[in-house]
Every structure is written in C-alpha cells, then in structure tokens.
Design goal:
Strand content: 25-35%
Helix content: 10-25%
Oligomer: single chain
Radius of gyration: 25 Å
Number of helices: 7
Number of strands: 21
Distance between the termini: 51 Å
C-alpha cells in the first residue's frame, strides 16, 4: 500500500506533482514520502525539484529531478509542517477550464522566467475566468487572451497581465509570488526580447572559455540532459578540451545570459567539422542546434559511427580525462581520438575515455 500524508485536507502520495514554497518562494516538483517516525509523531518527506537554490537533504528517490528538500508532517496535526516548506494544493481550489489552451511559445517563456506556476493557475476557472486560450501576440509586449466560446479576444501588456494573475492568486488562494514592480518590469523587457528572438545568443568558444559551459551556476536550469551531464562542475577533467583549441571548441546557446544548451565542435584530420552530442534543458534548443548544423553544413556525431573519424591532438600533457561521447578511443602514443575501430585495425595501446572519474578505462587491446 502506498504511503500517504494528509495536509490541509488534501491527500498526497509519492510521485504526486505539487506546487510548494520554500521560504515563501514558489517551486514546482514531486513529493516523496519516506517513512513514519518510530514514535509515529511525524512522517519524513521530500519535495524533489529542479531549483538549485534549494539543494537540501537528498531524497532516496529523486523522481527525475536534480534537487530535493526535506520536511516533516506532524501526524497528529495534519495542517502543520515542521519546516519552511508550504504545500499548495495542486487544484488551486478550482475546477479546470473547458477547452483550455496555452501556446508552446508562451509556456517556454514562462519556463525561462521560472514562472511555470502561471501556466498551472491559468487552467483554473477562477483565474481570468472569461478566457480559456492564451498566446503570445504578434504585437510587441502584448499577450493575447481569447474566449473561444464567444469568439472574442483582448491583448494586454505582459506586465499588466502578470500583475493581474498574481493578484488573483493572492486574493483567491493566498498564494504570494513575491515579485516586485522592478521584477515585473524586467520580465516585461525579457518578453519583448523573447518575441523578437533577441533573447537567444549563440557563442562558440575555445580554450579556457569552454569551462563556462560546464559550470552548473551558468545553466538556465538543471533539467534534462544539460542538468544531468556527468561532467558538470568537473573542471579539472577538461584539459583535453581547453589545451587543444585547434581541434575542439564549444557552441553554447543562451537565453537571458544563461546556458540552455551546449555541444562540442570537433575538427577531424580530414578537415571536417563535427557537431557532437547536444546537451540541452528544453526541446526547442535541440531544434535550434539542428538548424545550426544544417546551416553551417556540420557533420552530425552519428555520422562518426558509420565511418571512422580521427582527431589529432596537439597536447595531451595531462593526467585526467573527461567522459567523451563520440571520440572516446584514445591512442596515447599517437595523440589521436577516434570514433570507432576498424575491423583490420590493431587495438594495442588504445584506451577508452568513458569514465566519469577522470581516469581511462582498461586497454582495449
């Protein structure tokens, strides 16, 4: 039987998606219920999420998230938590709207501003009750709200829209987002940039500048393959990249000065340019990389498994190595990296760069 907790007349079990606050700041995630105390006075729980600002005790299961924060529910007082966590009912005390729609582009913007809760509350009947469809307007700074039943719409400034949403949340469900007028103005300006695609910056760097792409503090968020990258914050292992700028560089895609995607660009001994595996935190970034690859006529890393491709290093004066996705076959004597080994090729002296601890695997041969 699933372990459950009751809090403010709502029943929660492990894996339930929740909206909660830590120190008054809204975070989205899932709940994990660990156990009941020996004296049965409280139940130990965790909220699992992707906000690096709240990296607390590790949950036994992370439920697909990067971080977790512990709290306890007093069993004899199901309206009390003995921590700075507050669970907000996922129902927001209202039924869902019929024919609710929010555009992917608007969802992506809310995600870039860490305002995913806006998408959740807009679905409820008591938040902007006259409208069930929400989109980015073609006019700068405006958002389009539609009543599909009456076939009419209005367009209002993003700042005014958010101020109204947050006021309704406060009045109806006592949810306070704690954003100042200055915060709202910054989000509005970001929205204008978002509409014109000015918010997307693409940089290609080499040498020590590559290290920027591996620091978690520079990530927009810690979701998906970017957040789960095994080389994140392992800067001591990356000299193979930083000391070979002639053959390896990094392409980074940023939104609002934070990294949402990165990939290595290799130059083979034949002069071909190869785009390696993409590490991203959102699906649209993958599509952006695909467009760049076609525009720049870069080979895809998958091509390297059909035909052997080789990278000639100019420097291998280091003792620790990164985990390599594609060019992981290392010939230390010849200072080369390869994608595959041909059938008639000797394996003597070859090692694999496929560990996350900075070491090489055993000799292939």
């Amino acid at each position: 039987m699933d372990k459950i907790i009751t809090y403010k007349n709502n029943i929660y079990k492990t894996g339930d998606s929740v909206v909660f606050t830590i120190d008054g700041n809204i975070v989205l995630g899932k709940i994990f219920i660990r156990n009941i105390s020996n004296d049965r006075s409280y139940t130990r729980c965790y909220v699992c999420h992707n906000n690096p600002n709240y990296n607390g005790d590790n949950s036994p299961e992370m439920l697909g998230f990067e971080y977790s924060w512990s709290f306890s529910v007093e069993n004899n007082n199901p309206s009390s938590l003995n921590s700075d966590v507050e669970i907000i009912s996922p129902d927001i005390e209202s039924k869902s709207k019929e024919d609710y729609f929010i555009s992917d582009k608007l969802i992506s913007f809310f995600n870039t501003q860490e305002l995913s809760i806006v998408k959740i509350v807009l679905e409820k009947e008591n938040i902007f009750p006259l409208y069930n469809k929400f989109e980015v307007s073609d006019t700068k700074g405006l958002i389009k709200l539609t009543n599909s039943e009456k076939n009419r719409f209005v367009e209002i400034k993003m700042g005014r829209f958010l101020t109204s949403v947050f006021k309704q949340m406060k009045d109806i469900s006592n949810i306070d987002v704690n954003l100042t007028n200055s915060d709202i103005e910054k989000i509005y300006n970001n929205f204008i940039s978002y509409q014109s695609d000015d918010y997307i910056k693409i940089n290609t760097v080499s040498g020590d500048d590559i290290l920027e792409g591996y620091k978690r503090e520079n990530y927009h968020n810690s979701k998906s393959s970017l957040g789960g990258s095994c080389m994140t914050d392992k800067l001591n292992f990356l000299k193979l990249y930083t000391q070979n700028p002639e053959v390896v560089s990094m392409m980074m895609i940023k939104t609002f000065d934070k990294i949402v995607g990165r990939c290595l660009i290799w130059t083979t001994t034949d002069g071909e340019k190869v785009m390696d595996k993409r590490y991203t935190c959102d699906d649209w970034v993958i599509s952006k990389f695909d467009s760049i690859q076609k525009e720049m006529k870069l080979l895809d890393y998958s091509d390297c498994y059909e035909n052997k491709m080789t990278i000639q290093l100019t420097n291998n004066n280091f003792n620790q190595y990164p985990y390599l996705d594609t060019f992981k076959i290392f010939n230390q004597e010849e200072r080369t990296l390869s994608s595959i080994i041909n059938d008639n090729e000797s394996k003597e002296g070859l090692v694999l760069l496929n560990t996350t601890c900075g070491e090489t695997s055993d000799d292939i041969g």
